[in-house]
Amino acid sequence: MNQNYLLPFIIFSLIMSAFLLIYFGVQSRQKAKQNEAFLSSLKQQLIMSQRAAVEDSMNIKRKNAESLWFDFPVMGGWVKRVWLGFSLLGWQEKWRSRAMLLAAPCLLLGFTLGKSSQFPIVGSVLLSLGFFIALVFLLYRNAMGKHLKEFKQSLPQAIDSIVRVVKAGVPATNAFGLIANNLPGPLAKELALIDKWLSLGLSLRQAMQDSAIRVPLNEYRFFAVILVINQEAGGRLSDTLERLSETLRERQELALKIRAKTSEVRASAVIVAMLAPLSLAYMYFNSPKDFTFLLTDPTGNSVLIYAFGSVLTGLTITHFMIKRVIR
């Protein structure tokens, strides 16, 4: 890639980077404002007495790992969220072996395609890194989507079980272990973990706060807030949980309708996303000269950058449009 085509590539990369930084910065500020509003409203609703003694006797080692990466101003929050997601999926224990298994095919594919470029070493490393990040992102998003879907579907059933246990006269703090033994899916593991922390002496408020941080699901956070408010302020927990269960079922029905309405747009986005890699794969096997032209010739580099930039821009706009509809 000569200097005539390197400048447009650098300008395009800077524009996309600035756009992504601005977007994630606005999103982080909005989330911070929402969290502040949520905490202020929760403090107004709760009747809390000041506790002078601090519970230093229970020095419990949490599973939420601490890392220097979490302190980074831009990527720290994202890295922490992904690490908590790994904990929720059970990927933290063997993440190194998983990364090595994923890196091997990415390196093979990256060096296979990058060796024909004008800068073989740099191109191979960048392609391998890009393939690795894309593969990890797709696997993580797919696994987290399935996990949260099962979590959301079993949450109303778990709430109904808690309502029956509470109506039978059993305290809500003792209901987690009973329900976890009779409930399938990932929610059972989370309830069992909460029951474990409660049995070790952790307060219900702290246990539910930690659980709400681990599980990035608004419906589950509603459930956690209701339990904390009921413990602090009192009230009929069974009636509140019954209304929450009904609301969650209505939200699930609404989500299914939204997915049906947006199915055509999402299918179109998937088809457009697959066109570029499928076209390159077809060209690699059936027309090696044209494929080599895209990697070695400056004009081919420009065409390749323009194609991927256009597809990426279109997918980004489509993603934001669908996300606004779902919200």
3D structure, described in words:
It is built from twelve helices and no strands. The protein is an all-alpha fold and 327 residues long. Among the domains are: 102 residues, Type II secretion system (T2SS), domain F (Receptor-associated Protein, Up-down Bundle), CATH 1.20.81; 64 residues. About 6% of the residues have low confidence. Helix content is 79%, strand content 0%. It comes from Marinomonas posidonica (strain CECT 7376 / NCIMB 14433 / IVIA-Po-181). This is Type II secretion system F domain protein. Keywords: Cell membrane, Membrane, Transmembrane, Transmembrane helix. It is a multi-pass membrane protein.
Q: Please, what is the average pLDDT?
A: 76
Helix content: over 70%
Major sheet details: none
Judging from the principal axes of the Cα atoms, what is the shape? elongated
CATH class of the domain at 151-252, named: Mainly Alpha
* Number of DSSP helical runs: 12
CATH architecture of the domain at 151-252: Up-down Bundle
CATH superfamily of the domain at 151-252, please?
Type II secretion system (T2SS), domain F
**What fold name stands as the CATH topology of the domain at 151-252?**
Receptor-associated Protein
Distance between the termini: 43 Å
Main location: membrane
Organism: Marinomonas posidonica (strain CECT 7376 / NCIMB 14433 / IVIA-Po-181)
Keywords: Cell membrane, Membrane, Transmembrane, Transmembrane helix
Subcellular location: Cell membrane
